[in-house]
Amino acid sequence: MQQVLLYTAVPCGYCRAAKHLLESLDLAYDEVDLTHDREQRLALMEKTGQRTVPQIFVGDTHVGGFMELRALHLAGGLLPLVNS
Predict the structure, then answer these.
(1) SS3 for 22?
(2) pLDDT value of position 78
(3) pTM for the complete prediction?
């Protein structure tokens, strides 16, 4: 099973939605709160090219934000990715 890693910040409705989706699927995840960590947020922006949160990784795969996570789930790809 692949680790699900969720980078978040407060306040963030999309972060809450991503956590709710993962929890509704009984998928465990690790959360990194970037609310007060500018350095780590800049490092994440360098790594992903994205300025927004959430940013979600499954193993080494960068899924993207909530919309990409949701689309991956609706296309039937999230659970196979997590279970690979």
Answers:
(1) helix
(2) 98
(3) 0.94
